[in-house]
């Protein structure tokens, strides 16, 4: 093994401190007894209790959950389809352009995505509300889904689909009965990714939202402008918890299947 | 017996199950299959043999429906099937990679194709159980594909593709991933299953031994063309080209100039030595069993009281000197009984021509190659008599393989040939060793004359 040099240790510590110290402070202060954010006055969970009684926050949380759920489902369907076409269709005219365009929103500044969506919705006369936020989130989340799913599809053995066709499946049945169950872990982690992305999006949502469709990040942002309250700390802590659980589940889903498979294969080799 | 031999390809009235009619397949500019015509009959075990990249898989994929011919047609049971999608063909394929569905159990893998048909549950179950029994997989029915060994996976793939009782089963290098012993076992298993189910099998392989073992007919391919289509023994004994001869088994290739034979050219290169009048010929002396001096001493000193006096072996009868006519008949008898016709082959300066009576006289004057299997050579230390062809050479190397020994012999002109001898006795041919001068002989029909 390589020696663990001082330089490595220092940069690692600094990097992680940089990443996580602010969050740790936030989590700690969410349990602060005092209303003043900067003064520690003992441990308490009372802000969580108050949070639960805050109708506005609860309403925003509910909107956010709905938006995240519907947009991630839509994004998963569209993103998986896009990935399938890009990986499978082979060479067709404009393939590079098409696949490039799928990934472009990944690097596009959110402000631009948000603004252009806003212009589109105004242009077609769509009233802004939950629907427009869902559509907007779908648009940018499907790029992420298609990246995740297409990286799985690249290593997918095509002869499995051909075997399904050979055994009498129509192309759609082959996809539903063979391809989809096999790439399911990638699709699920794509969905979780889309869900968390939607959950914490502020910029695009604020461009496309309308009356009655205030999402939690928008609510938090506007509340913070009036001053940081321990209630918001508590809320943020909960959001961190949810996102963490989501991300960890996503990686576990794909990793566990691989580990289990490797173990079974070793067992089969031994049994031979 | 001859009438019951399975050989539908010899019967012009037989309808082929599969027919390739001038099929060409191109991928862009690249021609993978080039104007290929072929008929395969029901219940055949047909092998496609050829080096990697010659288009075997492409032919299978066209049969399965994953590729369509660029030109020409493929017929199944007399119907053009070019536009029939794979899921509507009565053809199943066992994939090179097995392509088992990893998320389904062995049972569900085998049932997969059956569930696509409108069958009732009981008949699906019965059929799956039958397939499991046929391939000896009943114990593993509930396992997933990654929980069984390579050989078992291969049998699952076979069971799955057989379950729908296809008219035609395609096997693309089915045994490539198995080790030699398992592969040989599985070959016999495949033949057995093919016989039991009566399905037509088309198997792709690049292993010539495998093709020879399992197939009723073998097609040797090269760069998208069929070079020869015939039964394994014909492919082996009478290849139609140097390519086929070299592809199947070991072969010695002797190049030379052919000339059509007339009876006059039948001539012993050297006049046989006249036997000396008073002594038995060397051959006769060798053949008569007689005691050696130790045996004689043993008899005289110890055994004579019991066995009586030793009888001297009778002196070989002395015959009168042969008349000229007798010499002539003797010479004729000793000269090999070579049928007329065929070719003689000038292969090296100062060496007698080689005789191949099965050569096509039309090749007169052409450069040809005589292809000879190593086991067709007889090897001896003395010059054999009464054979059509005998060439002298020097043993360079000996390979002992247990059941057979291979002698690598250098012929005049530097050509290296291999001669194979079955080791029937335990110490086989110990008398021939490195650097020995030996004679290789073979009959006038042992080789095949192939045009350049
Ligand atoms: N889909 C394809 N696109 C382009 N070339 C192909 C394709 N499939 C096969 N080929 C080419 O056709 C040739 C024959 O391939 P294949 O039938 O797989 O050979 P084999 O199975 O005999 O090894 C190869 O040179 C291969 O590169
Ligand atoms: Mg192949």
What is the number of helical segments of chain A per DSSP (H or I, 4+ residues)?
Answer: 11
Secondary structure category of chain B? alpha+beta
Mean pLDDT of chain B equals: 84
Share of residues in strands of chain A: under 5%
Whole-number radius of gyration of chain A? 23 Å
Return the CATH topology of the domain at 57-216 in chain A: MetI-like fold
In this structure, how is the largest beta sheet of chain A organized?
A: none
The counted number of beta strands of chain B is: 20
Question: Low-confidence runs of chain B (pLDDT<50, min 5 residues)?
Answer: 264-284
Provide the CATH top-level class of the largest domain in chain B: Alpha Beta
Named at the architecture level, the CATH assignment of the largest domain in chain B is 3-Layer(aba) Sandwich
Q: Give the overall shape of chain B, derived from the CA principal axes.
A: globular
Task: Give short descriptive properties of this protein.
heterodimer, A: about 270 residues, mainly alpha, MetI-like fold, 11 helices, about 0% strand, B: about 450 residues, alpha+beta, Rossmann fold, OB fold (Dihydrolipoamide Acetyltransferase, E2P), 2 domains, 6-stranded mixed sheet, about 25% helix, binds adenosine-5'-diphosphate, binds magnesium ion
What would you say about this model in short?
Chain A has helices at residues 6-30, 46-53, 55-88, 95-107, 110-123, 130-154, 158-166, 171-199, 203-208, 216-225, 230-271. By secondary structure, chain A is mainly α. The mean pLDDT of chain A is 86.
Task: Tell me what the structure shows.
The complex is a heterodimer of chains A (272) and B (452). Chain A contains 11 helices and no strands. Chain A has helices at 6-30, 46-53, 55-88, 95-107, 110-123, 130-154, 158-166, 171-199, 203-208, 216-225, 230-271. In chain A, helix 2 (46-53) packs across helix 11. Chain A starts with 5 loop residues before the first helix and ends with a helix. Chain B is of the alpha+beta class. Chain B folds into 2 domains: 12-250, 3-Layer(aba) Sandwich (Rossmann fold), CATH 3.40.50.300; 254-264 and 336-451, RNA polymerase II/Efflux pump adaptor protein, barrel-sandwich hybrid domain (OB fold (Dihydrolipoamide Acetyltransferase, E2P)). Chain B contains 11 helices and 20 strands. In chain B, helix 2 packs across helix 3, helix 2 packs parallel to helix 4 (150-162) and helix 3 crosses helix 4. Chain B is globular. Chain B starts with 17 loop residues before the first strand and ends with a strand. The A-B interface holds A 157, 159-160, 162-170, 173, 177-178, 181-182, 261, 264-265, 267-269, 271-272 and B 64-66, 85-87, 91-93, 95-97, 99, 101-103, 112-113, 116-117, 144, 146-151, 160-161, 164. Bound molecules: adenosine-5'-diphosphate and magnesium ion. Residues 27, 30, 32, 50, 52-58 of chain B line the site of adenosine-5'-diphosphate.
């Amino acid at each position: 093994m390589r020696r663990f040099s001082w330089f490595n240790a220092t940069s690692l510590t600094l990097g992680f401190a940089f990443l996580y110290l602010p969050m740790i402070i936030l989590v700690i202060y969410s349990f602060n007894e005092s209303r003043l954010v900067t003064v520690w006055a003992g441990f308490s969970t009372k802000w969580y209790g108050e949070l639960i009684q805050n109708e506005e926050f609860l309403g925003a949380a509910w909107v956010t959950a709905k938006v995240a759920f519907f947009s991630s489902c839509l994004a998963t369907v569209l993103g998986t389809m896009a990935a399938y076409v890009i990986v499978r269709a082979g060479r067709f005219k404009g393939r590079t352009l098409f696949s490039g365009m799928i990934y472009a929103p990944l690097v596009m500044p959110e402000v631009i995505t948000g603004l252009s969506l806003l212009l589109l919705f105004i242009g077609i006369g769509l009233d802004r509300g939950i629907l427009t936020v869902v559509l907007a989130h779908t648009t940018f989340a499907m790029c992420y889904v298609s990246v995740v799913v297409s990286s799985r599809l690249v290593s997918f053995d095509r002869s499995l689909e051909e075997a399904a066709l050979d055994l009498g499946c129509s192309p759609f049945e082959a996809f539903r009965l063979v391809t989809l169950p096999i790439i399911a872990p990638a699709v699920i982690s794509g969905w979780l990714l889309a869900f968390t992305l939607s959950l914490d999006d502020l910029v695009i949502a604020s461009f496309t939202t309308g009356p009655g469709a205030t999402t939690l990040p928008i609510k938090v942002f506007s509340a913070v402008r009036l001053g940081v309250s321990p209630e918001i700390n508590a809320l943020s802590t909960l959001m961190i918890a949810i996102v963490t659980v989501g991300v960890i589940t996503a990686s576990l889903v794909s990793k566990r299947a691989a580990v289990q498979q490797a173990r079974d294969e070793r067992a089969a080799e031994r049994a031979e | 017996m001859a009438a019951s031999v399975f050989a539908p390809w010899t019967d012009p009235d037989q309808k082929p199950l599969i027919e390739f009619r001038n099929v060409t397949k191109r991928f862009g500019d690249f021609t993978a299959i080039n104007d290929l015509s072929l008929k395969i009959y029901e219940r055949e075990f047909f092998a496609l043999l050829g080096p990697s990249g010659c288009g075997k898989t492409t032919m299978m994929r066209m049969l399965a429906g994953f590729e369509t011919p660029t030109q020409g047609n493929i017929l199944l049971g007399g119907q053009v099937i070019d536009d029939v999608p794979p899921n509507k063909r009565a053809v199943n394929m066992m994939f090179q990679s097995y392509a088992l569905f990893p998320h389904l159990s062995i049972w569900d893998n085998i049932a997969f194709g059956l569930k696509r048909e409108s069958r009732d549950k009981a008949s699906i179950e019965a059929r799956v159980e039958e397939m499991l029994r046929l391939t000896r997989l009943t114990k593993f029915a509930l396992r997933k594909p990654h929980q069984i060994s390579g050989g078992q996976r291969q049998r699952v793939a076979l069971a799955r593709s057989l379950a729908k009782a296809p008219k035609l089963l395609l096997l693309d290098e089915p045994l490539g991933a198995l080790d030699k012993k398992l592969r040989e076992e599985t070959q016999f298993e495949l033949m057995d299953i093919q016989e039991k189910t009566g399905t037509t099998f088309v198997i792709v392989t690049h292993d010539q031994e495998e093709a020879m073992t399992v197939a009723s007919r073998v097609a040797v391919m090269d760069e998208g063309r069929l070079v020869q289509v015939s039964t394994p023994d014909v492919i082996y004994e009478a290849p139609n080209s140097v390519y086929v001869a070299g592809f199947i088994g070991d072969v010695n290739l002797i190049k030379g100039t052919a000339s059509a034979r007339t009876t006059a050219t039948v001539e012993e290169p050297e006049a046989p030595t006249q036997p000396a009048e008073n002594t038995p010929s060397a051959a006769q002396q060798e053949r008569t069993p007689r005691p050696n001096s130790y045996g004689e001493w043993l008899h005289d000193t110890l055994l004579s009281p019991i066995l009586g006096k030793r009888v001297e072996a009778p002196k070989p009868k002395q015959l009168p000197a042969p008349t000229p006519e007798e010499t002539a008949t003797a010479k004729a008898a000793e000269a090999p009984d070579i049928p007329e016709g065929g070719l003689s082959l000038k292969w090296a300066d100062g060496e007698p021509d080689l005789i191949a009576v099965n050569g096509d006289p039309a090749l007169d004057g052409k450069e040809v190659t005589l292809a000879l299997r190593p086991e067709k050579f007889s090897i001896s230390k003395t010059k054999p008599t009464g054979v059509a062809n005998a060439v002298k050479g020097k043993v360079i190397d000996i390979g002992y393989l247990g059941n057979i020994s291979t002698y690598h012999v250098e012929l005049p002109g530097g050509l290296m040939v291999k001669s194979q001898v079955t080791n029937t006795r335990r110490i086989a041919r110990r008398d021939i060793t490195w650097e020995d001068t030996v004679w290789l002989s073979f009959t006038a029909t042992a080789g095949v004359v192939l045009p350049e």
